[in-house]
Amino acid sequence: MRVVPVEYALGHEVAEAIFDTNGRMLVKKGLHLSEQLILKIKSNGIFSVYINDRFSKNILKPPISEHMKNVTMMEMVAVFEEARKLKLSDKSTYKAAEGKMAKLIESGRDIMYELDELPILKINYTDIKSVNMYTYGHPISVAIMSYIMAQKLKFTKEECENIFNGALFADVGMSFINESLFMKKGKLDVAEFIKIKEHPKLGYDFIYDFYFANTYVKMIVLQHQEKIDGSGYPYGITGDKIHKLAKLVAIADVYGAMTSDRIYARATSSAEAIEYIMGAAGRHFDFDFAKAFVSTIVPYPEGSLVKMNTGHVALVETTNEALPLRPEIRLIDPGRRILEKTSVDLADEKTLIIEGLEYECP
Description:
The protein is 40% helix and 10% strand.
């Protein structure tokens, strides 16, 4: 399967069930998308879908099921809703939130268990979520990516769990900020952005006394928006003053934001996000972590279709860890609309360049 903007999905088979903002199934897996169903999907703020087609059927697999992700997202919503009722200055009001947070932590453990069963440590999916649910779905995606990267870097099991939980609660401080700010369609003004920049500290204060919030989790929540050159927030700290686990989560956070549809912007491609992270390595991001992240991301997953500089469309057959932007491909014959017999390794064939993903099946 592959991910396409919903406007390219007409007539195709849905490869993963689609859920609405209340967690109800919107479109069942296996249905073929009609114009009516596409309008229904768009009305829920969803602009990309997983499809199966004749070139890429059953190749790309999300690291966790859409059902598991949806259950976890609904638990994230419950935590935010409970947190909005609280007064940060009155810890006695926190008891009601404890049960909701325990459920979210338990779902997080289930996700980590699923990730531990993956045969390859790769991030080879584009997450699908409603723009209206971005605030709740984004931390889950970041937690998954951060966990996979921590495993690749051979962090201890305890460090991996701390990274996952820290990323999962990194944006919980947003629950104390007026929802209209992070749902605003236009650009934030200076005063609004200053308010948004408070969310790491608000989240840190909120989780401080909860049982799961050890020092590492708290540091991730507090520092995940800091940058090593001091241009981040909330404190503008630099270099080694930022905890190493927060440095790792910061990279996944930016990648997840760039590659997600949001109220005010459509998603950029994985390749563009990778190029941004590579360009900011050593300046905004820890250089070694950025390098590891880029080698973990698969911008052109096996089974995706890509546009070549020659005008051809090609099927990605094998990814290249050392050169993620130069996979092995098979060109599609434009006349007969079938795959060429011979594969082409773009690591060797320097004149062939991928210009981007192709969404229309030839």
